[in-house]
Amino acid sequence: xxxxxxxxxxxxxxxxxxxxxxxxxxxxxxxxxxxxxxxxxxxxxxxxxxxxxxxxxxxxxxxxxxxxxxxxxxxxxxxxxxxxxxxxxxx
Length: 91
Fold this sequence. Notes:
There is one protein chain. This protein folds into two domains: 38 residues; 52 residues, Roll (SH3 type barrels), CATH 2.30.30. It contains one helix and five strands, in the order αβββββ. The chain has a five-stranded antiparallel β-sheet, covered by helices on one side. The chain is rod-shaped.
């Protein structure tokens, strides 16, 4: 009977590990993948380095971001942290 208790406690630890570590990481990864696929010209974004800008061109692996009037910088797609709505975007 004691063996079942040890087996049950091991199963509970495995489920807790999955719920606290693996599942949230998979959710974040899916959200980031959805963001990468939804990038379009004209979107206001923030890079992982904190640079605000507007997307001017989108290629397979790179994104052209206008960070100032007439200044377009190329970023890797994975460097985009999030989209910014118009209200919280810095001008």
